[in-house]
Amino acid sequence: MDEKVDKIIGLLKHSRNTVVVTGAGISTEAGIPDFRGENGIYKKLGENRVMSIINSDFFHRSPDKFYEFYRENFMFEPVQPSLAHLVLADMEKRGAIKAIVTQNIDNLHQKAGSKRVIAIHGNSDRYLCTRKSCSSVYDGLYVDNCPQIVPTCSVCGSILKPDVVLFGEQIHNYLDAQESILRSRLIVVIGSSLSVYPLAGFIKEFSTFTQDLIIINKGYTLMDHAATVKVDTSNTGALLEQICQRL
Ligand SMILES: [Zn+2]
Question: Does residue 121 carry a catalytic annotation?
Fold first, then answer.
């Protein structure tokens, strides 16, 4: 393990453009369930059922049923960032990383203090007014406190939509994410098995041209063969702290 840590530190020190890519694994350390994991709702309720409800058409057709399900399965008590989130924010402050591209919608990187966060699946702590000309934005607290099940805009009365990518919708910041990844010299993947496209495709493309790919994940990922260093751990926070202290 020490050898791997030394190697990661060497790579980080020599890279002038490091981008971190994060997935559900980093947030399970903060206590957020992995939707696709063993006890996640995809396994519990069946992927097809979830996909048919957390779906753009369904939202517009039956917002009341959508919100009934969404409130029960996707809205959580506020959670604090994990040590891993905090160390990453610190690394950005110190210039060791340029940006974070995340698949997570939990807002924890932002909460930890990271400035440049490209959240490709959106942010579950944001709700947007569906009336185009209105463009009001609300947070989770506002929606929690709405007396009716479908939250509405306090300015115009239209219904609010969670600012997360539903099935049937394009990912957010596609070009920004792609460009950040392809322009970087070093990618550090944390807590993602790299099985979800298009992000997995960006990493594949990156690793075709550039060697320096670090993967920190509990278990196998689809890009293990291409990694310069792969660390299998469920304690990312401790590992990152150890690395950060020596940068
Ligand atoms: Zn409005």
Answer: yes
